[in-house]
Design brief:
The protein has about 150 residues and is mainly α. It contains seven helices and no strands. It has one domain. Helices cover about 75% and strands about 0% of the residues. The protein is flat, with a radius of gyration of 19 Å.
């Protein structure tokens, strides 16, 4: 009974209640004036593009350097698209980015702009990551091929 209940409640808690809880505790005040101010702020755009472009670029470059230098092997069966998709998923980092924002910025308006950018970038990064990883190659992340299933099972 407990396993069934956990199975039924998991999607609701993971995809609805936890994000609502995170948003409520983030201290972001959403208003039309705030959105207008944020759109004209260099901090907003810097944070947004740092999470959307910087994270995937950093993960892809670090992976390439590690493989080229011999420090690591490329994950078997992985594609460049999947590596960039995982890097894009790194852009979802909501909590630590909020914490760093409060430490780095003292002006409340700048904090609001950065937090709004983090929220928006997290949503965009999640969507782009899903798109990149959904059809990422012959073997998608986390799915076994027919041969692997027969070998294991």
């Amino acid at each position: 009974m407990v396993e069934w209940l956990q199975h039924v409640l998991h999607p609701w808690s993971s995809f609805l209640f936890v994000p609502i809880f995170a948003l409520a505790n983030s201290g972001i005040h959403l208003s039309l004036d705030g959105l207008g101010d944020a759109a004209g702020s260099a901090i907003t755009w810097g944070v947004f593009f740092g999470l959307i472009l910087g994270k995937p670029l950093g993960v892809a470059l670090a992976t390439r350097i590690a493989v080229r230098s011999g420090m690591s092997d490329r994950p078997e069966g992985s594609t460049t698209r999947q590596i960039v998709g995982v890097g894009m998923a790194a852009g979802i980092g909501f909590t630590v980015a909020m914490f760093i924002t409060e430490l780095a910025l003292t002006d409340p308006i700048q904090q609001e702009n950065a937090k709004l950018a983090i929220l928006l970038a997290s949503v965009v990064a999640a969507g782009l990551s899903m798109l990149l990883l959904k059809g990422g190659g012959a073997q998608s992340v986390g799915r076994a091929t027919k041969e692997e299933s027969e070998t294991v099972g």
